[in-house]
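With this grant's support, we have settled on a layout for protein records. An illustrative entry appears below exactly as we store it:
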Amino acid sequence: MLAWLAPMALAGLAFLSVPILLHLFKPRRIRVVPFSSLRWLKASRHHLSRRIQLHQVLLFILRVVIITALVLALAQPVFSPGRGEGNAERFLIIDVSRSMAFQVPGKTRPIDRARVLTERILSGGRAGDRSAVVLAGGRQPEGLGPLVDDPRFLLGRLRALRAESTEGELTDALPTVAGLLAERRPHARVDLIFITDHQAQAWDPSSISRFLAAVPPPVTVRVVTVEPEQPENAWIASAAVQPGDGANPAATLRVTLSAVGSGTQERTVKVGNLPGLPDMSQSVSLTAHRPVTVNFKLPVGYETAGRVAVISLLPSDALASDDLYWLALDAPAAPRILILEEAGKGPESLAPAWHLKTALSVLAKDRSGWQALTVRTPGRVTREEIDRAEVILLADLPDWSGDLGARIAARVRQGAGLVVFLGPASKPAFYNDFFAQTGLSVPPLVPVRLAAKRLGAGTAELSSLAGLDWRHPLLAPLQDDTFGDLLQVKVSAWHALEIDPAGEPCRVLARANDGKPFLMESESGRGRVVLLNTSADDAWSDLPRRRIFVPLIDRLTRFAAGTLYLDEQPTIDMPLRIPIRELEPPTDVTVRDPANESLPFQLRTSAGGWEVQVDQARRPGLYTLAYRRGGVAVERIIPVQCGRRDSAWVTADSALLQRWWKPAPFKTVSSVDWERHAATESSRRFELDAWLMLLALLVLVTEFFWTHWVCPRVESGVSAQATPPETLGEILPEVIPDGLPEVLTGIGDSDSIPARKGGA
C-alpha cells in the first residue's frame, strides 16, 4: 500500500507545465552577422529547423522527471507491501503520573523508556495509518495534536516529556480520544496503545464502557508495560496529631509508614521545622505490606497553633516524592453528631446504628472532642438537638411523623451535614417526599428518587463497587491499602435510585454492578448531603465488617460537616479547597503557592461558612492563605502533599482489564517485546522520499550534461544548401543583367576566363 504523508505537496505537479511551455514556445534566436554583400546571401536557399528532434524530446523527459521526482519527494510517500488489515487511527496514550519517575540508580526511569518507545512507534507504522499522542495521568489529559499521517513533528515535545507529581487515571484520556475520532476515516480501525507502568488504580471500568459505547468498532487495545522489575518503595502514608488527655497531657505526633518490596528496609523518620524544638528522629525497619506507626511526643503545653511540621523519610528511595510530608499541628475540629435510629427491639448489637456508634467510639479514643455524640429516636429528638448538630445521620429509618423532616432540611440548608443510610427499612415513597420536600415551596433537598421496587438480598448477585471517584476528597486517601479495603466490599442488595438531571448537581462517587449509585453527595443551601445506598449495619453489605469502615465514617462525618479540610492534608490530585468558618465574607483574600506565586481562586459559600477553592495547586509544599476579618489580618498555612495512591505499586490484573475491554481485542506486552514488534513494523515500512531526491539529483546531473555537451553538437539553428548553378540565372537575373560568366554556367572553355590580378 502506498500513502502520502504530505499529500498537499502533490499540487507542485503543476510545475510540469514549465518544461512543456519551454519546449513548445522556445524562441529561435538568429544571430545577425554583417556581410559584405547581402545580395549574394539572398541567392542561397536557407530555412530554420522548426521540428522537435529526438535529442530535444529526451531533454524534455529529463526535465519532467526532475520536477516529478522533487514533488513526489516533498509529498513523502510511504510504501508498505502486502498490507491487508486496512487503515488504522492510532492513539499513543502515555502515562505521565508520579510513579513513572521511579528512579533506580543505574536503571532507566519508566518515563524515559516510554519516551524512547513512543519515538520509535511514531517513526514507524505502516502506510495509511494516522497517529496522535495523548498524555494521561496528570491533572488533565492533554492531546499533543490531531490525527496526522506524519507525527514526527511531535518528537521535539516528546524529548522534553517529564513525569508529573499527580496521579490521574489513564482512562481519563478516553474522552479526548473520542473527540479526536470525530474526523475518523470510514472503515478505519481504532488502535489504542497505552504506555504505562501498569498501576491497577489507573483504570476505571465505567470510563471504558462509556468509550466503547460511543466509539463504533473495530477497536483494538494494547498495553505496553514499562514498570520496573520488583519495585521497592517506602513512604509516609499519613501523619496526625493526637491531643493529650488527663492521663497523658502531652500531645503525640503519629506518623504511619508503609512499604512494598521483597526485603526489609532500614530507614529513619525525621521531624523538623518546629520552632523551639530540636529535630527529632527514629530508626525503623519496614517490611512490605506491614504498616508501622512511629510516635513523637511533644512537650506538655507546646503551642501547636499555626505550626507546620516537616516529616521526612531518610534516605530517599527510588520514588522520593512520597518521602516528604508536611503536617499542620492545629487541633482538628470535632463536629457535633446526631444519630437518629429506630427504637431497638432486641440486643443493642442488632440495632441498625450499632456499627456507627462503635466506629465513632473508636474515633473518640483517637481524636479529642469526638465525644460530642447524641443518639435519639425520631420521637424523642428535640428541636434544640437538631439545631445544635453539625452532622445528622439517619440510620435505616423507615419514616417519621410530624415536621421532623422539615426541621432537618432547614438545618441542612443553614450549614449542617446530612448522612443517609438507605437500608431495607427505608420506605421509598416516604423518602421521595422527604428528598423532594413535597408540599413546601423550597428547592428539593436531594435530586434523587427511589424506585418502588428494590433488589432483594435473596435475588441479587453479590456486587463489588465500581466507578469509584478516587479524586474526590471523601475517597482520595482511602485507596491506599494502608487504610482499608474498599474495593473488596461486597453488596447484596440496594435501592434502584434515579438522579434527576434537572435538579442540583449530584456527584456519584461509587456504583453497584448494575450502574445504580451506591455513594453520592450533593449540596443543599450551605450544607451537604451524603447518601449511601446500603444499610448502616451488615444486612445489605459487609462494609461495617471491613477495616475501611472506621476511616470511611471518619471522613463521611467530617466531609458532611464541612470540617474535612480543617485538619485534612490535601494533595495536588484534587482542587485545593480551604474552608473559612466565618459568618461574614472575608476580604482582601490572596493565595500563594510554595514558589510565592499568586494563584487565582474562587470564594463561595459552603457548609458552616465560606470556602476558597484553588484549581491550580500543582506543586507539593506549603500554600499561604491571607485575608482580612473585620479589619484584622489573618494568615493560614496549608500543606499540600503528593498523592500516595501509586506508592504501593499494585499491578493491574491483565485478565480483569481484558474483561473490562471486551469485546475489543486486548493484549498486554512488555516494552522489550514491543520493541521487537516495532522493529518488525518498521521493516514493513519504506519511506521513498530520500530515494526520490537521489533520483532527482542524478537526473539533474544527466540533464546538465545533455544540455551543455550533447545538444550543442547535434542541434543546428540554421541549415543552408548551395543553389545549383543552373538555377542561379533564373533566381537572380536582376543581380547580373549581362548574365553569368561562362565558368559558372559551365558553357565555354575555362581557359577563356580572365584571371584576377593577384589570385587564381
